[in-house]
Fold these 2 entries.
Entry 1:
Amino acid sequence: MHRIVKPKNKRSKRFLDAKESQIIENTKTAMFIRGSQTSDVVNNALKEIYIMKKPNAVMFTKKNNIRPFEDFTSLEFFSNKNDTSLFVFGSHNKKRPHNIVMGHLYDYHLLDMFELGIESFQSMNSFKNTKLTVGSKPCLVFAGELFNSDHSYKRLKYFLINFFRGPMVQNVRLAGLEHVLSFTAVDGKVVLKSYKTLLKKSGTKTPRVELEEIGPSMDLVMRRTHLATTDLYKRSLKVPKTAKPKKRKNISIDAFKTTHGRVHMEKQDLGNLQTRKMKALKRVREEKKQKEAAAKKQRTAAANV
C-alpha cells in the first residue's frame, strides 16, 4: 500500500494529479539503473538504449545494490519517486555475465520482468554514418515464430512495443519515418538491429526505400522471466469507458474503410403509387367486361333483396 499524501498547495496538487491514472495515457518514461557490478558492455548498452528512449528517460548516475528477482521493492520505490513505469537494470557477475533486466510496472507495482544476457554487442560508434535525431518515433518490426507460439516471447513482444513505441500520433508523414527497429527471434535468441531509412529516387512518385544499419546491434538470450498473474495483466489492459470512442448509430465501416449509413423511413403504401401510363400496363378489354358483368350481377342481387 502506498502512503496517501495530501497536497499542501496548488503546485503539489498539480504534481500529484499528473502522477495519477490518466484517461489518455502520456508517453511512458523509463529509468536506467546500474547494479553494484557492471561491465563495459552493459554500460554501453544502457547508454545507447537510453539514447533511443530519450527524452522520455531517466539515467541513474550512482550504482545500486539491487537484485530484481529476489527483491523488487526498490524498483517500485524508484518508480513511484520518479513517476516512471519502465525500467532497465544492468549488472555483471560470473554466473550471469553482461546481464540486463527489463520490465514495466502497473500502478507502481511490478508487472512483467525479463532477464536478458548480451552475447554480442555493436555500439553506434562502430557504424560510421549519420545518426538519428532525438525523439524520433521508430517503426517496430518483429520476425520469428517464437513471438507467436511461446508465451514468454509473446509477453516480451508486448513489453518491447510498450517500451519503444513513443508518443501516440494520428498520422505519420513518409519523410518522418526514418528509424526502424528490428527484433528477430531465432535459435532461442532475440536479435536487435537498428536501421535508418533512406528514400531514393525511383522514377515514380513513390520513392525507393533502403535500410542502412546505424546501431546498436545486440544478440540477447532470455535467462529468467517474472510474469504477472492473469488477473493483474488483464486489469493493466483495461480501457476506461470514457477513453473508448462512442459508437454512432446506423453508421458502419466495412473492410475497405468505406462508411455506410442506414436511413430509417416510414412504411410506404405502394398501392396508390402513380406509375407511367403505358399500353403494356393497361387492362385488357375482356378483363374489363368480366369485372363490369360481375358488378352488374352484384347490383341486381342487391336490388332483389
Note: Residues 130 and 211 are 13 Å apart (CA to CA).
Entry 2:
Amino acid sequence: MRKLVYYVASTIDGFIAAPDGSYDFFDLQPDPAGPLVKRWPQTFPTFAHQQLGIDRPQGRFDTVLMGRATYEPALRLGVTSPYAHLKQYVFARSLPPSDDPAVEIVSGDPVTFVRDLKGRPGADIWLCGGGQLAGQLVSEVDEWLVKVNPVVAGSGIPLVDHPFTPQHLTLVDTTPAGRGVVLLHYTR
C-alpha cells in the first residue's frame, strides 16, 4: 500500500508560513548539490529543475497533495501545474475545476479521498501543505519529513492545524541539510 508522507518546511516553533500565507522568510535557495536536491528532487517545482540540475526527478513520489492556500501562489504567477512531473491534487471547495490535465481539484472529504488513493497502484504520495489539510489528514500520514529551519516566527500557519490529540512518532533519521536546516524523519 502507498504511504502518505508529509514533507514540509517549518520554523523551529512549528510554523510553515506567515499569518498571511507567505513563506519568503525561509531560505528558498537550496544548494543544488545538497542533500535535499539529491534525495528529494521530486519535491521541487518543475520550473526550478533546470536551475537545480535536476534532469529527471525520480524518487519515491508520483503524486502530490496540497491545499488551496498552498496552490494559489503558483496560480497568481500564472502557473497552473507547479509540479508537472507529478499527479497533482488540490483540495479546495472554492476553486473551479482545473483546465490543466495534471491537476485535479478535489472538493470532497480529504480522508476518504486519501484512503482510496492509498489503495490504488502507484508510488508514495507527498503531502506538501498546508496546515489545515495536514490537520484533516493527520490520521492518514504515515511518515513526517520536517525541514526545520533556523527561524523563530512567533505566529503563522501551524505545521498541523488540528485539535489537541497527541500522536507519538518514532524518529528514523536526522539529516543536516545546510544553512542550519535539519531534516527530521519520523514514522508512526
Note: Residues 88 and 153 are 29 Å apart (CA to CA).
